[in-house]
Design goal:
By secondary structure, the chain is α+β, with helices and mostly antiparallel strands. It folds into 3 domains: about 35-85 and about 100-325, Alkaline Phosphatase, subunit A, CATH 3.40.720.10; about 375-430, no CATH class; about 455-610, Galactose-binding domain-like (Jelly Rolls, Sandwich). Helix content is about 20%, strand content about 25%. The protein is built from 12 helices and 28 strands. The strands form 6 sheets. A 10-stranded mixed β-sheet has the order 6-5-4-3-7-1-8-9-2-10, with helices on both faces. β11 (about 370-375) and β12 form a beta hairpin. α5 runs parallel beside α7 (about 240-265). The chain is globular, with a radius of gyration of 24 Å.
Length: about 600
């Protein structure tokens, strides 16, 4: 690493020498390998027994690494949606338009091709079962991104883990059971159904993302458990949150075991590549190997995650990969292992890691991995991390980032600073600098605001239902969301004719649409006249009957964060039909007459294109 231009040099050399290394390695196989991808949500590197956590048991997850390969230095993003985008595409997440976790910022641009697209084009059956988090409306929806089947939820987090409402291939259904168990059930059915053909089964788990809800049998093992391994700063740790996160991890591990046993039972074990990783650092302060940071930051503990890959007979059991790698490498690696050409022709940031998996890499070049969150960028080399403030750390000698050595090693600090500058120009351009963000009036969170001018699409014949959740709308007047976290929220405090709710939409197909609103309303306040309008079209109706269910009391093992909504059972209110013309505009929901003190609470407006 001896030139300030290392970023561009390394990217060119890796792309030239490695990207397609294994595309033909197994092309002669008569039966292409299946692929099962398991993704933890908000599980830190330290949440697994394979990484030294003595309070939790994750034998099934651990077995994937012990029976195959374990990556010792694998890096993802600060938060959920960006990691998913990088895994899907092999490209840094800002390139595909993913710059946040909600209000539209989580959407992956429709001109990006995904790993689902690649395997589907090769004749694989493809299914996704769990948390999507890269867009809800078609063509951002998973079934538009290469997945034949989808069951789960498309938002960033879900406020109901027990008996939740979930999407089943374009229809909302209420299921019974714990969300991780139920989504795993569907994945097992998918594997069983497609046992005679190649398949890609993607299982993005919900846990241990908050709210803090674990099945009772798992919680009972942890509720009084002594936690001896503590967060790097123990004063910041909530021990009950730690206990619940680990209980959720043991439930997740049991479900991983169910998947592995299903492959064994069906005789698919030897011809199935199994991958497990997580999407960011831990979502609370808890033990993480002494590393600095948690979810939402750009330090080592915010970004380092497990990566375990098993392929019996191909990857030697017990393989340890010590070279740095990242979420951007997964798509090129997995397509190469399976002999599947990648979809699309956009340049990749990730590389094919199969030489490291097979032990055939010679003179593997040094590389840099960049991490971006809300305008902050850090960079990791095989030995060093330059953090978002410009501090330099020797990660081999100081994994906790306790000693800034920038003054002692000015040349290295300058090289990495120049690499960050080049990366910002290449990947971010002018759209996401701290200065631009401070002046922007766009959407975002944290210490920087990121603009997003993409409307929410409506009206595709291949997927007639368009959900417009509160997450994607804008309240006006005194109406507001039920919580600070938009993902699993609803509109409340709608009391006057000055209040209204709008969605910035673009209608793809002119036509007649059924309108259904998911609502609640105190019985005494029922009867308000409401209107939904778009350009010159309008439809009106009354909020009736009243429907005022209590907030759920069966969801939380430990109190959920204040920023997350308590949920309840919403009822559909049909307004009839509306004619929508093609084009972009503001969809507006307002009240015309309000006989009571309250109009209604609104979780979602549903528009369905009639045939």
């Amino acid at each position: 690493m001896n030139t300030p231009r290392i970023y561009s040099r390394v990217r060119r050399s890796l792309a030239a020498s490695l990207l397609g290394w294994a595309l033909s390695a197994f092309a002669a196989e008569t039966q292409p390998p299946n692929l099962v991808i398991l993704l933890g949500d908000d599980a830190g590197w330290g949440d697994y027994s394979i990484n030294g956590n003595q309070a939790v048991r994750t034998p099934n997850i651990d077995s994937i690494g012990r029976d195959g390969a374990q990556f010792d230095r694998f890096y993802v993003c600060s938060v959920c949606a960006p990691t998913r985008a990088e895994f899907f595409t092999g490209r840094y997440h800002p390139r595909g338009g993913v710059r946040g976790v909600s209000t539209g910022l989580e959407r992956l641009n429709t001109d990006e091709k995904t790993i689902g697209d690649a395997f589907k084009a090769r004749g694989y059956a493809t299914g996704a079962f769990g948390k999507w988090h890269n867009g809800s409306q078609w063509p951002y929806h998973p079934m538009a991104r290469g997945f034949d089947e989808y069951f789960g939820y498309t938002a960033g987090h879900w406020g109901e883990y027990f008996d939740p409402p979930l999407e089943d291939n374009g229809k909302m259904v209420r299921v019974r059971g714990y969300i991780v168990d139920v989504c795993t059930d569907r994945s097992l059915a998918f594997i069983e159904k497609n046992r005679g053909r190649p398949f890609l089964c993607y299982i993005p788990f919900t846990t241990p993302h908050s709210p803090w809800g674990a099945p009772e049998k798992d919680w009972q093992r942890f509720k009084d458990k002594l936690i001896s391994q503590r967060a790097t700063d123990p004063a910041q740790e909530d021990l009950d949150q730690t206990r619940c996160a680990l209980a959720m991890m043991e439930n997740q591990d049991a479900n991983v075991g169910r998947v592995l046993r299903k492959l064994e039972e069906l005789g698919l074990r030897d011809n199935t590549i199994v991958v497990y990783f997580s999407d960011n650092g831990p979502n609370s302060w808890r033990w993480n190997g002494g590393m600095k940071g948690k979810k939402g930051g750009t330090d080592e503990g915010s970004l380092r995650a497990p990566l375990l890959i098993r392929w019996p007979g191909k990857i030697k059991p017990g393989t340890i990969v010590r070279d740095i790698a990242g979420a951007i490498d997964l798509m090129p690696t997995l397509t190469a292992l399976a002999g599947v050409p990648r979809a699309g022709d956009k340049p990749l940031d990730g590389v094919d890691l199969s030489p490291l998996l097979f032990g055939t890499a010679r003179n593997w070049p040094d590389r840099l991995l960049f991490s971006h969150q809300n305008g902050q960028v850090s960079v990791r080399s095989p030995q060093y991390r330059l953090d978002n403030r410009g501090a330099l750390f020797d990660m081999l000698a100081d994994s906790g980032q306790t000693k800034d050595i920038a003054a002692a090693q000015p040349a290295m600090a300058a090289q990495l600073t120049d690499a960050v500058t080049a990366w910002r120009k290449d990947v971010l351009g002018t759209i996401a600098t701290p200065e631009a963000g401070a002046k922007s009036k766009g959407k975002g969170k944290g210490n920087m605001v990121l603009p997003d001018d993409r409307p929410f699409p409506v009206g595709y014949a291949e997927f007639p239902w368009t959900p417009l959740p509160a997450r994607d709308g804008v309240p006006h007047g005194k109406a507001q969301r039920s919580s600070g976290a938009p993902n699993s929220s609803y509109f409340v405090n709608w009391k006057t004719s000055d209040d209204r709710i709008t969605w910035d939409i673009e209608v793809n197909t002119a036509g007649t649409y059924d309108v259904v609103i998911d609502y609640t309303c105190p019985l005494a306040d029922a009867g308000s006249s409401i209107e939904l309008s778009f350009k010159s079209s309008k439809v009106s109706g009354k909020v009736a009957p009243g429907w005022d269910p209590p907030l759920y009391t069966n969801q939380d093992t430990v109190a959920r964060p204040a920023a997350e909504s308590q949920m309840k059972d919403f009822r559909p209110l049909s307004l009839g039909t509306i004619r929508l013309e093609k084009g972009r505009g503001e969809l507006t929901l307002r009240a015309l007459e309000i006989p009571g003190r309250h109009v209604m609470d609104v979780r979602r407006v549903n528009l369905t294109l009639k045939k």
